[in-house]
Specification:
Dihydrodipicolinate Reductase, domain 2; Rossmann fold; 15 strands; about 35% helix; 12 helices
């Protein structure tokens, strides 16, 4: 696999987690960063110092970076949610393939603009949903498609985290920048993984949300129906002491159990039996999966069309929560 050059746009705590992982990979050379926070700049420089490596330069904008050193092969965008669209457009226009942190954009209208830009500039665009990129979730879909648990009748999922407490005073609780609260942030993994496993669009949605005294939603519960009539239920609790998740895919001949990030995979088929682990290919993380896609080793499991599907569903969820009514989609075709 040939080595690719990459820039990282936004170097906050999540980006630094990715940067640390990328530094251990021989297939990627980080050549520049876009960041305006001095704290984040110093934190990245400390990572390089600890690794005994020379830190690439920092720029205040994508345009400044490209003007100074030219476009890299790829860009990893890890900025606050409301900046994703503009950042991705700038990178694709400059000729870079884009790996974009979740959620892809704020709403369905922005998602459609992203797809048009991808087509216009003819660049690879992958959304960094760990679930969709995980070999575990891909294996779960394979088992379902082979009929290992029969006809899927229902999917239930939950995620909980000390999100409310941990995001006080940050952009994540500013709706104009974040686009939403716990459900739109950590909970986006749950929503995306469930619809990815179902491999179809949502027909009906009912949602309840509680902001718990903050400007954004903290606790949410959603129930709905897929296009084929199977049901789903989702619960997001952002006011917890711990962080964990579970997804149960219930079929008439068995059950699959996994997590919203693809952190495990188990199957239960015979009556009265216990769940048994399913072996899957190991992964070094989302960047490794992006490089596999870019090198042609696998198809893109999370193109912007997946981001559009998620955005449309979030629009439905918000409308239901705002109106207190069931929301029905006009789209009922399989994705």
């Amino acid at each position: 696999m040939s080595r690719v050059s990459a820039i990282v746009v936004g170097t906050g705590s999540m980006a630094r987690h990715h940067i640390k992982n990328i530094l251990s990979m021989r297939n990627t050379k980080l050549v520049g960063f876009v960041e305006v926070s001095e704290h984040s700049i110093q934190a990245v420089q400390a990572l390089y110092s600890e690794a005994g490596k020379r830190c690439p330069p920092f720029y205040v904008s994508i345009k400044d970076l490209v003007k100074a050193q030219g476009a890299a092969d790829t860009a990893f965008i890890v900025t606050p949610h409301s900046y994703h669209l503009e950042n991705a457009l700038d990178c694709m226009k400059a000729g870079m393939d884009v790996f974009l942190e979740k959620p892809m954009v704020i709403n369905g209208q922005e998602a459609k603009r992203m797809i048009r830009a991808r087509d216009r500039y003819q660049r690879l665009l992958v959304v960094a949903f760990p679930g969709s990129l995980s070999p575990t979730i891909q294996k779960a879909k394979e088992l379902i498609n082979k009929g290992e648990i029969g006809r899927v009748t229902s999917i239930s999922a939950n995620v909980y985290q000390g999100w409310k407490r941990g995001t006080v005073g940050t952009w994540r609780q500013v709706p104009e920048i974040s686009g939403g609260g716990f459900l739109f942030d950590t909970g986006s993994h749950m929503i995306n993984t469930v619809v990815d496993i179902a491999q179809q669009d949502v027909k009906h949605v009912m949602a309840l949300m509680d902001n718990c005294g903050t400007p954004v939603e903290i606790n949410s519960t959603i129930s709905g129906m897929f296009a084929d009539g199977s049901m789903f239920s989702l619960a997001g609790a952002g006011d917890s002491l711990h962080c964990s998740s579970e997804v149960l895919v219930i079929g008439d001949q068995g059950t699959i159990r996994t997590g919203i990030w693809g952190e495990r995979l188990e199957i239960k088929k015979a009556k009265g039996s216990d769940f048994k682990p399913v072996k899957t290919r190991r992964s070094k993380g989302v960047w490794e999966q992006f490089i596999r896609v870019r090198s042609g080793k696998q198809e893109n499991p999370c193109p912007p069309e997946i981001g559009l599907r998620f955005a449309k569903l979030m629009d439905m969820i918000r409308k239901s929560a705002d109106t207190g009514k069931k929301v029905t989609s006009r789209i009922s075709k399989k994705t």
